[in-house]
Amino acid sequence: MHQLPAPEALRQRLPSVVFDLAERFTASGFELSLVGGPVRDLFLGRISPDLDFTTSATPEQTLEVVTGYADAIWEVGRDFGTIAIRVGADTIEITTYRAESYDPASRKPVVAFGETLEDDLYRRDFSMNAMALRLPQLELVDPFGGHADLSAGVIRTPGAPSSSFSDDPLRMMRAARFASQLGMGVHDDVRAAMTDMAERITIISAERVRDETVKLICGADPRAGVDLLVETGLADQVLPEVSALRLETDEHHRHKDVYQHSLQVLQQATELETGPDGPVPGPDFVLRFAALMHDVGKPATRRFEPSGAVSFRHHDVVGSKLVKKRMRALRFDNDTTKAVARLVELHMRFYGYGDAGWSDSAVRRYVNDAGDLLERLHRLTRSDVTTRNRRKAERLAHAYDDLERRIAELAEQEELAAVRPDLDGRAIMDLLGIRPGPVVGRAYQHLLELRLDHGPMEHDAAVAALRAWWEQQPESRSSETAAAADGSTTTEEAQ
Q1: What whole-number percentage of the chain has pLDDT above 70?
Q2: C-alpha span between 274 and 271 (Å, rounded)
Q3: Residue 252, pLDDT score
Q4: Domain named HD/PDEase: which ranges (predicted)?
C-alpha cells in the first residue's frame, strides 16, 4: 500500500522553495498548500517535475507576496487565478482556490474563486490528484479518498464523472493517459461516463488532444491506454483509424485480428527501445505511434480472394497517407508526421528477404530509404512479428539478423549512413555546362541510383557515366544547337 513519507523525510525530499513560500504566505495571513500531481507522486515514491500550489490569496495578493522573492514572474494565467514564478531552477504555479465551471458549449472555463481548500480539491479531475499537503505543517488533506484509490489502482473522479467530464472533456483523455502512465484501471462509473460522453471531446482543440495522445503513447503501458480509448468510443473521435482496425469477426479465421495485432506490435516496440545511450532511447513517440498505426491501411485494402485467402495489397502506402492526414488534423509538426508516415510506408519492405535474399544493391536501397529512421525501422519490423508459429517467428528473426549483419558489413566498407552520388551538384553543372535547375536534380538522382546499384565508383567512371546519361537527354541536344548558333562554347569545351 502506498504510504506518504514521514514529515522529516518529506522535508528532505521536497525542495526548500516549498517551505520558503509557505513561510511567506503564512506570514502574510494566507493559506498555501502543495496540491495535485506533486502530492500524488510522493505516494508513488517519485519526485514530480512540477510544483503546483493552491492558496487562499487572490492573484493580486499572490503578486504582492512573491514580488522581491521570485526571480521571474508571469501573469499570463492571472484571469484564471494562476501566477507563475521562477525561483532558481524551479518553475512554480500558484493558483487561487477555484470553484470553476464550464459552459457546455465552450472549451474555456468560467472561473469562480473558491473559499476553501476542499472546494478547490472538489473541482479537480481525479481523486488521486485531489490531495493536498497543507504548508508548512505538511498535513495531508484527502477528502475524496485519493490515497485509497492509488493503493487500489483505480481512477475515480471526486464528484460525478459526468459532471467532471462535462466541465472539461479533455479529462476523458487524461483518464486514458493515466491508465497508460500509472498502470491503473478506471472505475466502472468513469468508464460509463467516458462511453456516454465520448463525442464531447470534439469541442477540445486539436492541440490539447494531441498533447494528451503523446503522453498516453509514451506511458509505461500504452496498450492499456489505447484500448481504453477504443472501448469507450473516444478513439472514434480522435483516432478513428485505430478503431477501424477492429474488422468484423472472420469466422473462418482467414486473417489475424488486426486490432489486437497492432496493440501487440505497440507493446513489443516499447520493449525494444534502448536506454539513453542507445540508438532509440525510450520512450520514443515516433516508433511507438508508427507501431500502433502501421496497419491502418488494411481496412481500406482488404480483399477476399477467389482462393479464400484475404489480401491487403498496398496497405503500407495507403496507411502512410492515412497517418499523414490524421497527424495533420491533430496539429503534429511536419518532422514528426513525416517520420511516422515514412515508417508505416516502409514497414513491409523487409518481407521476402528471407525467401529470395537481397543483392547488395537492395540492401543499400533499404538503408538509403530508411535514412535516419533505420534503427527505428529495425525495431518496428521485428515488432511486427506476432505469429504464434514458433518456427515462422524464428525464421523471420534469423532473416532479419542476417539483414542487419549485411548492413553492418556494407556500412563498414562504404559508409552507408551517408550514401551520396560520386559527383555533387557543382561537379555536375561544371561537367555538363548547365545552370542550376531540374536537370541537375535528374542527373544527381541518376548518379545516386548507380551508387546504390553498384557501390562507390572511381571519379573517372562516374564522369563517364554522367556523360553517357547526358547524351541521352533532350537538353544536351538543345544546348549544342544553341552553342553552335551563337558561336559560344560549353564549360566542358572551355576546359
Answers
A1: 89
A2: 8
A3: 44
A4: 254-415
Asked whether the CA dihedral 370, 371, 373, 377 is positive or negative, the reply is positive
> At 385, phi and psi to the nearest 5?
-95, 105
Q: What is the mean pLDDT of residues 202-208?
A: 96
Q: Quick one: which H or E segment has residue 82?
A: strand 82-87
136 prior amide bond cis, ω within 30: yes
Read off the amino acid at residue 429: M
Class of domain 153-238: mainly alpha
Into which CATH architecture does domain 7-149 fall? 2-Layer Sandwich (3.30)
Question: Which residues, 6 or more positions from 244, have their beta carbon under 8 angstroms from its beta carbon?
Answer: 296, 299
pLDDT at 272 over 60: yes
CA neighbor of 263 nearest in space, from 315, 300, 228: 228
Question: 285: Cβ–Cβ under 8 A, 6 or more apart, which residues?
Answer: 214, 217, 218, 336
pLDDT digits (tens, 9 = 90+) for 440-485: 888 888 888 887 777 777 888 888 888 888 888 888 776 554 444 4
The whole-number pLDDT of residue 423 equals 81
Backbone dihedral angles phi then psi of residue 407, each to the nearest 5 degrees: -60, -45
Instruction: Enter the C-alpha cell of residue 151.
Output: 493503493
Specify the pTM. Answer: 0.80
Select from 247, 328, 339, 234 the least CA-distant residue to 289. 339
Cα–Cα distance measured from residue 210 to residue 226, given in angstroms and rounded to the nearest whole number: 14
Q: Which residues pair with 73 in a beta bridge?
A: 85
Give DSSP secondary structure letters for 277-295.
TSSSBSS-HHHHHHHHHTT
DSSP string, 5-68: PPHHHHHHHS-HHHHHHHHHHHHTT--EEEESHHHHHHHTT---S-EEEEESS-HHHHHHHHTT
Q: Which of 41-55, 150-164, 249-263 has the lowest mean pLDDT?
A: 249-263
